[in-house]
Amino acid sequence: MGTYDALLVVSFGGPEKPDDVMPFLENVVRGRGVPRERLLEVEAHYQRFGGVSPINRQCRDLIAAVGPTVDLPIYWGNRNWHPYLEDTLRQMAADGVRRAAAFVTSAYGSYSSCRQYIDDIALARAAVEDAPEIVKLRHYHDHPGFVAAMVDHTRQALDRLPAEHRDAARLVFTAHSIPTSMARTAGPGGGLYETQLARTAALVVAGLGGDREWDLVWQSRSGAPHIPWLEPDVCDHLEELAAQDVPAVVLVPIGFVSDHMEVVYDLDVEAKDLAAKLGLPLTRAATAGTHPRFVALVGELLAEPEPTACGMTCCPAPPRRQGPNGSHG
Hints:
Elements: E1 6-11, H1 21-29, H2 36-48, H3 55-66, E2 74-78, H4 85-94, E3 99-104, H5 111-126, E4 133-136, H6 144-159, E5 170-176, H7 180-184, H8 192-208, E6 214-219, H9 234-243, E7 249-252, H10 261-264, H11 266-278, E8 282-284, H12 292-303
Parallel strand pairs: 1-2, 1-3, 3-4, 5-6, 5-7, 7-8
Helix pairs in contact: 1-2, 4-5, 6-8, 6-12, 9-11
């Protein structure tokens, strides 16, 4: 077990009022050549919900739930919006924290879901005098706590379908699409992101009984059209399932740990509206959120042997100007 004197929750960040939205998006895509019209399109998604992303509230809820289960002070820092990592590390240093474990609200390995968090922590540490050492906890895509939470939420979603559709409903697992070049180089040997997601999906299916048809698809593509990203897109896949006369679908967003903007817009608005037009019964499983088993997972990770740091060549940064790596606000 690692010796830590604090827990640092690290997340992507998100706007909390309408005036925050465009500055937040500009932070996310800085240096990546994303067209202004794309930013305006995404800004409209946020403004539809009052200019507020649910992600910060859900971080607060998770911290409140985890607090009584761990014997450590908990701090919270974001990559792209307040509270910024640098400000949080400065407060930790002022409080005398010397060594902290970092729980990142991303369960998988790739540049955007792991390495970029490591790099941003390093940049924040470099900017803070006497910054504490930060040890990032391991990927938890296959941790029994994460899987149990998703099994429960998927079962609840199945129960919301009409009784006649439940047994034959297709499970459609979703995760944030990334450039195929990034997917190829994820992990020490490549392909880690897709491999981990497929394992999570299979474990959830096994937890439900193991006899359901399921698919792994992608959502929230945000890059330039000429750059290949992982496919199929969830909406394209729904059209294919409707054409195959699949009786019903449950969307299971295993690529996310909280119901933030890309879940509530891309799935609860776009995919839901499309399914209604197709006459395809559809429900959506909740993300792990503050499910008791997911909350307990944090303390269980803290009790494990300290993880080995990733090699510097693991999950390399993609070439610049290929579009954002995925916004998780």
